Structures are given as structure tokens and as C-alpha cells.
User: Fold this.
Amino acid sequence: MVPDSLDGAVRAFAFGLPEAWEDHPWGDTVAKVGKKIFVFLGEEAPADGGCWLGVKLPESKELALALSFVKPMGYGLDRGGWVGIQAPPDVPLEMLLGWVEESYRAVAPKPLVARLDAELDAQPDARRDAKGT
Assistant:
């Protein structure tokens, strides 16, 4: 089942990654793998149907920052490749989920990244289905 909102789809994808779990530091909802945050999700979805998230983008940070709705994250997180995204409702879900996956891969232990790759290799349509396409 595909969640019916952009925010819901991003959350479902993030928490569906190997050993991802939800935590609430500082009053925000985050997705963690082990003890490391890989997505900041905020407390609730924006009323306009878009979504807010913060992700670590070691490979695509500069490309993401070229978009008007992506900004460097504060508190020094930007130095580590973190960006904040205030995605409007018409942003392609596939792009957001790709960023979530990149962030996961940046912080997850290598065995979990290998497990993700094995799961995706075993089910070629798994990524497409998870993204709702």
C-alpha cells in the first residue's frame, strides 16, 4: 500500500529501510539506523500536502541546493552535507526517496548497505514499488 501523501510516502520509505527506526530527539521525528540519524522528518506534515525533511547528501548536495526549496541545514549540520528540504506537493516523489536512500547509505553500517543492495537486487521492482510508481 502506498501512503496517500508525499510526507506519508517519504516516512514509509525511510522506516522501511533495513533496521531503520523512529526516534524523537528535540521534539522532532527522525529516522535512525543504529544510533545515527539519516532523516529529520519534523513532527507533522505541512498542511499544503508537501513535506519537510533533512537529509545528508554527500554526493548530490550541490545539485539539490540549486533547487529553490532546498537550503543548507543550520547548527553546523551543513558542513556535514546536510540539507533541509521544504518540498512542495508537486515535487517528484522519486527524487525525495532517492535523497532519503543516499542519506541512509551515508550513515548506515556497510553490512546494512549491502543488505539493502541484496534486497534491491533480489526484487528489481522493489525500489519502484516502494516509491509508488
Q: What stands out?
A: Helices lie at 6-15, 61-65, 93-107, 110-122, 126-130.
